[in-house]
Fold this protein.
Amino acid sequence: VVSSENEVGDLDFQYTKNLPWFGTSVPEIADVKPLTLLNSASNDAYFCFNTAQDTAYFCSDAGGSFDIWMYPKETEQTIDDWFSQEGISPVKVESLSSAADDKCPYIYRKIMVFSSDREGGFGGFDLYYSLFQNGVWGTPVNFGPGINTSSDEYRPILGGDENFTNMFLLFSSDRPGGKGGFDLYFRGTDLF
């Protein structure tokens, strides 16, 4: 799933899938299709699934500023059938959304990381995390000065390896000392 500009300049989702190609290690790539389930007249970007792949999360500026939205999948639906539905309204995740811009959700297990320029940060966009407990996303927590700066920290990805207790955080930042523009940074983190 990718987000790209449509014919009027707004961001829309498109998706494709690899179809196994028998007898070769090179996969066949299916045609790119619009993800009509989530595309709206607003800017829609940064799609991710939860761990069970039964709920889609993304950000949209449908309410004026960017907020984090979700849409659950009915269990009997295939991904193609789900993605090609039209006219269905997603639900704003109120516990994660603020009056500022909340973007770039990414889920690893029961942790969501995202970027926000909400009040109380270190300046620009900061990285936050939220824990999924008892069926809801908890209050976002700023990663703090070990990760965030007065510049923009953006597009976080959280991951781990079963052989290690710590997780890793990969993100981009336009902080001083980089190569210019948004550079990639890697940092170990222990959220538990």
Q: What stands out?
A: The CA atoms of residues 174 and 182 lie 4 Å apart. The mean pLDDT is 88. The radius of gyration is 18 Å.
